[in-house]
C-alpha cells in the first residue's frame, strides 16, 4: 500500500506545471512619410511598421540588445493598405538607436534615435517615445512590391507592447514526468493485485 501511495504522489507531482513563458511583444514604429509601395506613391501618409517577437528571446551583447521578429514584420500605410515584409528581420537597440534590420543582408529598414532608449533590453513594455527618425535608402521587399521611404517628417514614435494574456504552455518534460508517474503507479497497482491473488 505504501508503494501505491508513493507512486500516486510521484504521479501527482508531475501535474505541477513546468512552463515555458512565451510572452509575445510587439514593437511599433510610426511616422509620417512619403515614398512608394510597389507602383503606388504615397505622400505625407502615416506609415506604421510592427515587428512581432517573443520577449523571452531578447538578448544582449556588449551593450547592444537584439530580438528576432519571429512573428514577422507588418507594414501599414494610411490610404494605401497593409502588407508584410518577406525577409526575416530583427529589432536591435544599439544604445540610443532602435532599428529594424533584415537578418540576411544587415540592411536597416528604419531607425529611431533617442537617449531614452539607453539600457532598454527589448524584453518589456516601453514607450511611447517620440524620437528622431532615419531610414535606409535601400528598398524592402513585400508581396505587393518594394517599399521605399523618400522623405519623412523627421519625428516618429516607438512603442513596445507586451501581450500578458497568453497562458503558459506546459513543456514536454511535464508530460514526460506525468507519463512516468502514471506508469509507476500502474505497475505498483499491478503488483498489489498480483500479491492479493497469491
Any overview of this molecule?
The longest helix has 26 residues, at 172-197. The protein contains two helices and 14 strands. It has helices spanning 2-13, 172-197; strands spanning 19-20, 24-37, 40-54, 59-61, 64-68, 73-77, 81-84, 89-93, 97-102, 108-113, 126-135, 140-142, 145-162, 169-170. Helix content is 19%, strand content 49%. It has 198 residues and is an alpha+beta fold. Strands 2, 3, 4, 5, 6, 7, 8, 9, 10, 11, 12 and 13 form a twelve-stranded antiparallel β-sheet that branches. The chain has a two-stranded antiparallel ribbon with strand order 1-14.
Quickly describe the structure.
The chain is of the alpha+beta class. The protein has two domains: 43 residues; 141 residues. It is built from two helices and 14 strands, in the order H-E-E-E-E-E-E-E-E-E-E-E-E-E-E-H.
The overall pLDDT, averaged over residues, is: 82
Can you write the helix and strand succession as a string?
HEEEEEEEEEEEEEEH
Number of domains: 2
Q: Output the structural class.
A: alpha+beta
Euclidean distance between termini CA atoms? 16 Å
How many strand segments? 14
Number of helices: 2
**Biggest sheet descriptor:** 12 strands, antiparallel
Percent strand equals over 45%
Please state the CA-atom Rg, rounded to the nearest Å. Answer: 25 Å
- Poorly predicted regions are 4-11
The helix content, as a percent range, equals 10-25%
Shape: elongated
What would the keywords be for this entry?
198 residues; alpha+beta; two-stranded antiparallel ribbon
Topology, please?
Layout: H1 2-13, E1 19-20, E2 24-37, E3 40-54, E4 59-61, E5 64-68, E6 73-77, E7 81-84, E8 89-93, E9 97-102, E10 108-113, E11 126-135, E12 140-142, E13 145-162, E14 169-170, H2 172-197
Amino acid at each position: 500500500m505504501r508503494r501505491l501511495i508513493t507512486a500516486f504522489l510521484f504521479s501527482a507531482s508531475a501535474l505541477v506545471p513546468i512552463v515555458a513563458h512565451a510572452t509575445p511583444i510587439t514593437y511599433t514604429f510610426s511616422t509620417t512619410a512619403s515614398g512608394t509601395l510597389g507602383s503606388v506613391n504615397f505622400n505625407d501618409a502615416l506609415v506604421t511598421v510592427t515587428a512581432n517577437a517573443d520577449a523571452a528571446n531578447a538578448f544582449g551583447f556588449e551593450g547592444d540588445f537584439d530580438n528576432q521578429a519571429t512573428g514577422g514584420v507588418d507594414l501599414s500605410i494610411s490610404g494605401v493598405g497593409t502588407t508584410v515584409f518577406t525577409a526575416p528581420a530583427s529589432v536591435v537597440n544599439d544604445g540610443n538607436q532602435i532599428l529594424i534590420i533584415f537578418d540576411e543582408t544587415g540592411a536597416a529598414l528604419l531607425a529611431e534615435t533617442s537617449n531614452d532608449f539607453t539600457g532598454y533590453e527589448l524584453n518589456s513594455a516601453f514607450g511611447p517615445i517620440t524620437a528622431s527618425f532615419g531610414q535606409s535608402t535601400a528598398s524592402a521587399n513585400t508581396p505587393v512590391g518594394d517599399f521605399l521611404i523618400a522623405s519623412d517628417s523627421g519625428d516618429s514614435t516607438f512603442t513596445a507592447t507586451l501581450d500578458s494574456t497568453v497562458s503558459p504552455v506546459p513543456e514536454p518534460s511535464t508530460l514526460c514526468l506525468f507519463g512516468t508517474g502514471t506508469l509507476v503507479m500502474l505497475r505498483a497497482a499491478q503488483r498489489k493485485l498480483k500479491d492479493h491473488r497469491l
